[in-house]
Amino acid sequence: MTDNRDGAVVRLSHGRKAFGDTEVLRDISLEVNSGDVLAVIGPSGGGKSTLLRCLTLLEHLDDGSLAYGDLEVARGEGGRAVYARAPELKAARERFGLVFQNFNLFPHRTVLQNVADAPQVVKGAPRGEAEARARELLAQMDLAGKEDLVPCELSGGQQQRVAIARALAMDPQVLYFDEPTSALDPELTQGVLRAIRELAARHMTMAIVTHEMAFARDVADRVVFMDGGRVVEEGPAEQVIDHPAEERTREFLASY
Ligand code: ADP
Ligand code: MG
Questions:
Q1: Ligand 1: does its nearest atom lie under 6 Å from the Cβ of 2?
Q2: What keywords are annotated for this sequence in UniProt (predicted)?
């Protein structure tokens, strides 16, 4: 077996998170290797969004270790997670992007500005360069010609593709998606799934929380099934989805 450790873009070990008395993540470990697509599936309330929020530093773990490549973000020590200092956290934030269920675009900025703003503000990219790259990414997302519209003039599927272009504009090493199509009609869903498939074909490293099982099986290299704040089962996509080993996974998949 090859040792993939050097290829891990992100690694979480023994992650724990509680809100008050509610334990939401209970000893979660996972890693995403460079060029891999990981799908995270599981019932509502199982902790999937909290997992992504901890991986993207929107929430802090209570315990466990988190690293982006060689960059240590948090270290489990004496039963709690000790976080790195602000400069390291800022560096870590530049390594990932996050696409939300509800797009979260800036409503009063144009499509082009939504994509081109952050590279200028956060990375000091020259405006011309940021806009040229934004146009390229929008074309890649099948949105050429929409640059000057504002988000409310687009369909939900188009807005979500703008959100993906915006995340890509920061050149992340890994892109996270939290149920990117669950706010969309079936026909709009397909355009967004197609865009994500194309990114997978270009070997973009991604971790995707999704309820689209056929999509997960096709696109993901590995699937994690989460329930009750735990990883119940993990493995190659066809194995977990077509031949789950755990009764709980079978039960969950039977509802699709
Ligand atoms: P999923 O995304 O799998 O549906 P979540 O991570 O959203 O699951 O939620 C897991 C559990 O954590 C749920 O019981 C939810 O109510 C609880 N939870 C999530 N966020 C918070 C919060 N900020 N405060 C309190 N409880 C929360
Ligand atoms: Mg969720």
A1: no
A2: Amino-acid transport, ATP-binding, Cell membrane, Membrane, Nucleotide-binding, Transport
23, 28, 49: residue to mutate for ligand 1 pocket, most atoms within 8 A of CB: 49
The pTM of the full predicted model, rounded to 2 decimals, is: 0.95
22 CB less than 6 Å from ligand 1? Answer: yes
ipTM over 0.95: yes
Question: Are the C-beta atoms of 178 and 54 separated by less than 8 Å?
Answer: no
207 closest CA partner among 18, 41, 80, 21: 41
Measure Cα distances from 39 to 69, 71, 158, 233 in Å.
20, 24, 22, 12
Pairing state of beta strands 71-77 and 80-83? antiparallel
Burial label for 94, CB within 10 Å (0-12, 13-18, 19+), is middle
